[in-house]
Amino acid sequence: MYPEYMVAPMREELTAVGFEQLMTAEEVEKAISSEGTVLVMVNSVCGCAAANARPAARMSVNHTKRPAKLVTVFAGMEKAAVDKARAFMMPYPPSSPAIALFKDGKLVHMIERHHIEGRPAQLIAENLMMAYDQHC
Known about the structure:
The protein is of the alpha/beta class. The chain has helices at residues 4-15, 25-33, 47-60, 79-88, 113-116, 121-135, and strands at residues 20-21, 37-43, 69-74, 98-103, 106-111. The chain has a 5-stranded mixed β-sheet, sandwiched between helices. Helix 2 runs parallel beside helix 4 (79-88).
């Protein structure tokens, strides 16, 4: 686990634009199992990928179509919440950062770490917005 002072600014990047920070497995279960669309951002300390993932997620939610619910879990912090989110993301292997779109509790779009690394935030955001156009 990381010291909270270290991850607080990274959490704030997402919560400031409407993402709800999920801290328990039960909160994750309730959020993802709900009707409608849910975007789940697996936040991470990883500088190279997370530095583009967070801005991409923020940019994407300014699109005309967007998920009904925005949530985030933090890898390396709330283990049970992250494990539960990753269980919903199967068959994709654990990845952080990662961004998943669910519709009515089913995974419909997944962006893994290797889709984030080395790509600019705008390109990742455009990928998400295309998924929103299709599923939201």
